[in-house]
Amino acid sequence: MIKLLFKLVLVYFISTVSVISQIISKIEVSGNKRISKESVIVFSDLKIGMDYSNELINQSLKKLYDTNFFENVEISYDNLELKINLVEYPIIANLEIKGIKKKSFLDFIKEKMTLKERTSFNDFQLQNDLKMINNILKTNGYYFSKIKSSFNADLGLNTINLKIDIDLGQKAKIKKISFLGNKVFKDKKLIEIIASEENKFWKFISRNVYLNKQLINLDKRLLNNFYKNRGYYNVKILDNHVEFNKKNSSFNLIYNIDAGEKFTFNDLSIELPEDYSKNDFKEIFKTFEKNKNKIYSLEFIEDILVEIENIASNRSYEFIDVSVEENIVENNKIDFKFFVSDSSKFYIERINIFGNYTTLEEVMRNKLIIDEGDPLNNLLFEKSINNIRSLGFFKKVKTEINDGSDENFKIININVEEQPTGELSLAAGYGTDGFATGGHIREKNFLGQGINLDTNVELSQQSLKGEFIYSKPNFAYTDNTLNTSIRSIDSDFLSLYGYESREYGASIGTSFEQYEKLFFSPELDFNLEDLSTNSTASSSIKKQEGTYKDIYFNYGLNYDLRNSSFNPTKGSFYNFRQELPVVSKNNELINTFVYTKYHELNKSTEMIGKASLYLKAINTIDGSDVRISKRASVPYGRLRGFEKGKIGPVDKTDYIGGNYVSTLNLTTNIPTILPTVENLDFNYFIDFANVWGVDYNSSLDKSKLRSSTGIGINVLTPIGPLSFSFSQPITKASTDKTEKFRFNLGTTF
User: Fold this and answer.
1) What residues contact 267, with CB distance under 8 A and at least 6 apart?
2) Positive or negative, the Cα torsion across 557, 561, 562, 563?
3) How confident is the model over 620-641, as pLDDT tens digits?
4) pTM of whole model > 0.90?
């Protein structure tokens, strides 16, 4: 018994000594020159009194290497003492990047680099940074760039001077854009959809002619949306590839598209929580009935989500979430079911915005529908983020929702990456009505305040126009846009009608959405006009020679019900504008109304019909004569088959315009003519127009309905888009001058 007890005590003593012998009683650090011993121990997460083990040492090694401060780390343990022997990475004393002149671009690259001045240098991070720089350069079109790195080391100070030499080379330009596969639409149409452009000699200003990964990704999104909005639910932008053209050091950009088949809506339904009133959603039920068996459109689905969001906001459904279930049934039909449910009840504690180095934070916050303290409504949250994206100031907008200080609160972080917001473009054209050119310089985010500055210049054979526009969204926190402008117009009709006019003007106004899709735009306009004549002018025009000072109150109403502002296939657009004299010698009252309707005539061939009505009336309040420069004439594009300005009342040999103008244009594309010719489109048109009313001499007023019909052809040529028409006048007045052929060649760059 005593022997057994002795053995147990001996075993306990040996094990106790063994355990004690594995405890860390002292930590020594060597090889550290820049980083203190205390910092090294903190980084290692080692502490005196810890039990020594291989697992503990491996974890400490990993933590020390993860700091990127050390090139080599060795840890040894002997006689209760832990020794850490280090070799530190050198510090980057100076980082120099040569070859990039644009400071903002250089700063952007430096910001993205892992290696920076006063940080540790290691070759692995350098290679990653060089790859990252190469990708940034390619994203910006520099596919022929070359990058070299070098450094000088100071072994005594353990520092290096890092130098990166960049030879940008020429930007990679897009020689040709083409589309392959089951693409349904012609290349000409698809090129109009995407943002990338083919390089032409006149497009020396455009940035979109350079091969750009971000632009290619944008092209894919635009193509995807275009097809889905025209019924191609299963469209696939299979791939894009780039072919290098050695002959001219440019690239051919090729998109491979499988449009699939066209789909229509089958059953459309919505499932609501039991405590929701179906009466609140009655308009949605009506919309579902109207669109059953209609062509599928992604925009329709988005519109339904917006309508649900509006109902939720107006009816105080604060915590709401919506999901959509899609089910393809036979005969290329799709069932859509919208599930409306109560979301988790969270409130917004704080909204943080990061990455906006130029754009003021208030510009972004003004676009938020939700605010700090509001319920976290998922629909309103998504719309708020889309509103920020729609500004066009940012390459990327990312969000994350984190837990707040309480279980019922959430913190929203919004991270943005800014992009250039300036734009410079030129336009030129030549046609049967003469040569015209123009351009504009635009900045969409002046001083980071969301201010839009736009300078426009237009030059034609008879006129020179210049205008500067200033627009401030959300002026004085009213959700209204403040618009101001100054302009100058010099019109020379001395050789045609014996007069010339010089106008100088300024305006101030606002615009806002009064009701959904109904926009109201009032303005106050100031105008100074100098009207002079020569000996060839008629007596009526000579009587109006002089200087005119006018102040007008103008307003416009726009009601847009089109399914898309670009290439619409259905819907309508209404525009009414009235100009009211406040201070004027002649007191002209001007009313203009435009109504345009789109309708899909043939679903299988994408044949779209368009009808447009234009009405204009100009009269004076006091019964005096309308000034010659303000008299109404038929817009050139609304009556083909007749010379510009050469219809209507005639005073001797002068075409003087009238007090009233009306036009009706019926147009349709003809996709079945030469459908395989990629860069050629045909359209058929019938135009009706009349101009009448001569207030100063009723004997000159001879009302006559003019009409014409013809074929229009649009061709995408190597030197720009060419459009021409062959017209046959049907009815006309004896004094009208006809024009059976008309063409226009022009482009923007």
Assistant:
1) 292, 335, 336, 337
2) positive
3) 988 888 888 888 999 988 998 8
4) no
